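Anyone opening a protein record will find just a pair of labelled lines. The record below illustrates this layout.
***
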Amino acid sequence: MSAPARQAAAMSRREHLGLVGLVLVGGAVGTSVRAALEHALAPATGWPWVTFAINVVGSFALGLLLGALAGRGADVGARRAVRLGVGTGVLGGFTTYSTFTVEVHRLVDEGTAGLGLAYAVGSVLVGLGAAVAGLALADRIHGRAR
């Protein structure tokens, strides 16, 4: 392998490790914010409003972020770093489908299977709607139409 080829491969490895680091740090930030909110606000019984709100807000924010980044060009360089650090890292850590699953199970175990089903279906549908709304807002801000 030539010296320029080795240098390019090394840069690629360094870039990859840097992006992994952004996801790691972003995930720690997002998870910490979510855990603090859930600890401070989560009720012990009934509809899990805090997790529901976190997942909906996170879905909207991810749609907005991805729409905004897509409107600015290819997924390279700084755009890729923001997508991975903020999108995958912060928002991936902030949203939580593992807690969502535990909460659905808790609702069913408490004898409120109907509420568990409503929470499961409602969370997915409202989250999807929020992501679409975020994408639409990004398009509107950037003057594009899908």
